[in-house]
Each structure stands twice: as C-alpha cells, then as structure tokens.
Amino acid sequence: MRKKIIAGNWKMNKTPSETIGLINEIKEKNPAPDCDVVVCTPFVCLSNAVETAKGTNIKVGAQNLYFEDKGAYTGEVSADMLKDLGVEYVIIGHSERRQYFNETDITVNKKVIKALEKDLLPILCVGETLTDREQGVTDDVIRRQTKIAFLNVSKEDAKKVIIAYEPVWAIGTGKTATPEQANEVCAMIRDCIETLYDKDTADALRIQYGGSMNAGNAKELLSKPDIDGGLIGGAALKSDDFTTIIKSC
Ligand code: PEP
Fold first, then answer.
1. How does the average pLDDT of the chain come out, rounded?
2. Does the Cβ of 168 fall within 6 Å of ligand 1?
C-alpha cells in the first residue's frame, strides 16, 4: 500500500508572519492522519514554516530550486540552502513555472537530479493543456514530460519522486478532472514509469492529482486506485478546507 500524500502549494500567497498563523491553524485542526502532509510555501516563509511545524506531522516544501550548487545566479536558491533550513520537499516543474518562467523539460530534469542528490524529495508536476487534450495528445505530452524528467535518475532514486498529475486546464479554474479522467492519466503515468524502470518501481512511486481539488471533491478523487494524494493550490490556503482534504485520506 502506498501512503497517501497531501501537499499544499501556497504559490505567491502569505507573508512570513501569516505563515505562522496558517500553520498553527492547520496544527490545531489536524487529526494526526495516516497520510503525509506537506506545505510548500514561498521561499521567504520557509524558515517560519519549518519552525512552526516542528514536532508535528506537517513537513515543509519549497516551490522551486536551482540546479547549480552555488555561484553567480542572481535571485536563485540552491538545494543546500533549502536543506539548511530544514526543508524536505520541493515542487519541480509546476505548470506556472513552465508557462511564466521558461522552465523546460530539460531544466526540470536537472532540478529533479539536483534535488535527489541533496536528499530533497521532488514533487514533479506534469500535465497537459486544454489544447493538448482537445487534440488527443494528452498521453504523448505527459509521457514526454515524464521520460525527460527521469533521464539519468536511478531506480532507487526514482521511487522517492512524487509525481503530481496536474491538467493545466484544471489549475485554479474550478474545473476538476473527473475522478475517472484523473485516475486514467495517473495509471498511464505509472505505466510509463514501469516502462522506464520496472513494476516494483512503478508500484512504489506515488502519484498525486492536482487541479481544483477541494473539500467537496477530494474524497472521490482520493478513492481511486492510482491516485495517491493531492497537490492543492487555492484550497490549501484555508485551514478548514485543507484539513478536510487531509481527513478525506
Ligand atoms: C496547483 O497550483 O498546483 C493547483 C492544483 O492549484 P488549484 O488547486 O488552485 O487548482
């Protein structure tokens, strides 16, 4: 059985002081669930997040990292910097980073490799646009994103990666993939991992669904056999909604 994992992607929301408040609320309402819980905050909030979550089952993640160790990369943040703060997870290749910040499949691969090298657990985002889906190339796009992201990643390391299937048309739009649609793509991603590695690796690796998951639809999505958790945007900013999603596991 794969342990479910619920991760909140706060995007560019909440100040460092607001971070303390929101994590304290989650702590109060959090029923110590049988799933992994992660909050991915802006860089400047990470220190407060780690401090506030200490001693609880809530882990902290970043929303990006740079693939070089150090040097003249103004504005970038390295894996060592994140590790030093106590960060354990990092979102890589979110569609907003691919769309607005020119992330490519190749930079995503470099970041996955760097995160694993430094013992950070990558939450690797893949997903098709509405045009991809309408043109019938969803599987091709997601297989390409997945294959390139895992280039030169060993079998042992591959098992540590969490893949978030996030249809771009469902992110922040209120449109959710149906549980059947979401499960079908998650199963296809698992098949892609089996082709790249083997069944053991594919069975071990966790695949989340993300895209307007909320307190109302989480239970049904999370009941599907190939959906091992959720990456939550908007609903992760409200402690009631986020903890209801956690309880849905
Ligand atoms: C996300 O940003 O990863 C996401 C899934 O956002 P939302 O839940 O708001 O659609």
1. 97
2. no
Comparing CA positions, the residue from 69, 74, 72, 8 lying closest to residue 42 is: 8
* Nearest Cα residue to atom 1 of ligand 1: 233
Which atom of ligand 1 is the closest one to the Cα of 230? Answer: 5
Sorted by sequence, the CB contacts under 8 Å of residue 80 that are 6+ apart come out as 69, 70, 118
Q: Give Cα separations from 46 to 66, 67, 240, 244 (angstroms).
A: 16, 19, 21, 23
pLDDT at 176: 86
Q: How far is CA 56 from CA 81, 141, 249, in A?
A: 22, 38, 18
Handedness of CA 111, 117, 119, 125 (dihedral sign): positive
Mark whether 220 is an active-site residue.
no
Write the residue with the smallest CA distance to atom 7 of ligand 1: 233
pLDDT digits (tens, 9 = 90+) for 149-171: 999 999 999 999 999 999 999 99
149/152 Cα distance (integer angstroms)? 9
**What's the chain's length in residues?**
249
Phi, psi of 90, rounded to the nearest 5 degrees: -150, 130
Residue nearest to atom 2 of ligand 1 (CA): 233
239 within 8 A of 194, measured Cβ to Cβ: no
